[in-house]
Queue: 2 jobs
Job 1
Amino acid sequence: MRVAPVGGTAVQDHVALAEIELCGELIIAASAADEDRLSLESIDEVLRVAEERDASGG
């Protein structure tokens, strides 16, 4: 069995961390929603899709 060495050897995958954060936000929104499923518009709002489109000029 290998054990990670103690110290500053942690590697961060910023893309994976961002995806985990977005999934968490979707879970929170889904648990707070009145309906059984989030609408596509609600999902876009949680994921800030419109903001990203505006920022990219599309």
Job 2
Amino acid sequence: MKRAPLTLAAAVAALAALTGAAALTAPAPAGAAADGKAASAARMPVERSLLVCPGPSSSDIAETTYTSFTPGAADGGKGSARLLGATKDAKPVLEPKEPGKPVGATANGADAPALTGSADGVLAPGWTAQLTTKVSVGRARGVLGVGCTAPGTDFWFPAVSTAKGREDYIHLTNPDDAAAIVDVKLFGPDGLAKPDAGTSENIRVDPKSTKTVLLSSLAPNTQLADATAHVTTRAGRVGASVQVGEEGVGADWLPASADPAGSLVLPGIPADATSVRLVAFVPGEEDADLKLRLAAPGGAITPAGNEQLHVKAGMTTVMDLKDLTRGEPGSLLLTPADPAKASPLVAAVRVVRGSGAKQELGFVPATGPVGARATVADNRPEENTTLLSLTAPTADAKVKVTASPGTGGGEPASQEVTLKAGSTQTLNLAPAGGKGSYALTVETVSGGPVHAARTLSLPHEGVAMFTVQGLSDDHSTVSVPRASQDLSVLTR
């Protein structure tokens, strides 16, 4: 059957849908070529962004901070944003009023809600939000941090576990008005784990609600010390994150890995890590042979005894890297041993700081590049609390880092950083006279790509409590064909 060409409005809607995190409704600007030839595509700011945040904690003594921020300065345009509890009649928790100024809120106890929200107009491009929870004692003690994400349909979580002493809960939040249907598959060292009858498929997440699933309940007859979880939707979309609690070690969030790729960067492994364990998984049918390097301040080095890793397709593979960083912050680089045979994979590292009863747990998943711009919220002005790691895995680069004012005031600060290929540099930048938490924005000036992560350290009674969040391109603009272009190609 012959299809009619799409209208410009339909094409714009299709392109907006592809961004996942944002929608674009503005028309393309004028400026078609005078000779009638198709003009090049224009980049336009997104006009609507969506975010989903999981429920922070089940602990009655949890202290949670929510922070929201849109980079840039107010330009006279209008916009609105709000994050509210993931229920049908919830009240707003955060309502940013203008770009360039973060806003925050706090909640205590186990009743702090999961959040859903949207931003439009000038508040939409690059809109970000963060939740940070501190639990001082108990099984779930630690600092648990996670960035709110766009809802999606496909997520990979290497480094989950169903072993004794671990409690891994996957949080599924549905921001929409229709139910979402979710499948969860677990892959161990021998491949797909056999689920308990019917428990891992057709998981219903009601509209405007959140559901938590204990991963060990999906395969109760199999204990997997290290596994990979694959979350997909049959209907609808969800936000997905895994909350990990490990007996005697602590707790944190495990965000989804970057999409499967032949080369990966895991940025921001702390300098004083006492244990680093790499977990990798190849979703396809071809095994992966990888070369491992550590991007350190002085350049890339190959860890002795851990130069290469073979990952069998469909099977979770683990490598114990021990105290990989040895006193210097670094980022793990995974590249194909043979560039002509690059099998896409996902990966994350489980990181421990401290020892004995003073251990604390965190995770560093593979993270995409910052691209044109990326932001992380809820950085703290106290000395040695916030550390930004910047990595240029393949080529020299220059970036501009900007610290916003704090939620309680202060003046923004910025600094340019030059990175050598294969190196990781760290930066502690805060606003002048800043009060309250602030945001850090990284913009690529030249070269690259650049990968980044922020470590937030909130020590408590001798325990080096911390959490690491990666920064990825905020996709604040999308490419839109100009009106003079033939859009019928989009019907093919």
